Amino acid sequence: MDELSITVVIADRPYKLTIQREEEEAVRNAARLIDEQMKKYASYFQYKDKQDLLAMVALQYATSTVELENQLRYRDNELLDKLAEIDRVLTNE
Questions:
Q1: 22, 47, 56, 63: which is deepest, by most CB within 10 A?
Q2: Is residue 1 over pLDDT 90?
Q3: C-alpha distance from residue 83 to each of 11, 43, 90 (Å)
């Protein structure tokens, strides 16, 4: 395993992480996206502190994750139905 120690900054706070080298780009991009979303929310809404912005970003990403999981589940079910239909056609011939 090729581990790497990096520091990412989220909400003006540094976080030291030990990650796999191949994860570096994804982790840095994720941190950048979080900061971009926080800036977007800060320009649209009033907030008391950065925790409010972090909560909104977390809610946004959690909602997206749930929606994607639902879409994947639906597609998996559709695929299984199609495969069962193909199997029925092939077995009946």
A1: 56
A2: no
A3: 47, 49, 10
Residue that is written with structure tokens 């900054």 in the block: 9
Q: Angle, to 10 degrees, between the axis of helix 50-92 and the axis of helix 24-44?
A: 120
The confidence score (pLDDT) of residue 93 equals: 66
- Classify the phi-psi angles of 7: left when phi > 0, otherwise alpha if psi is within -120 to 50, otherwise beta: beta
The pLDDT-based confidence of 30 (bands split at 50, 70, 90) is: very high
Global confidence as pTM: 0.75
CA distances from 40 to 12, 25, 36, 57, 61 (A): 15, 22, 6, 10, 14
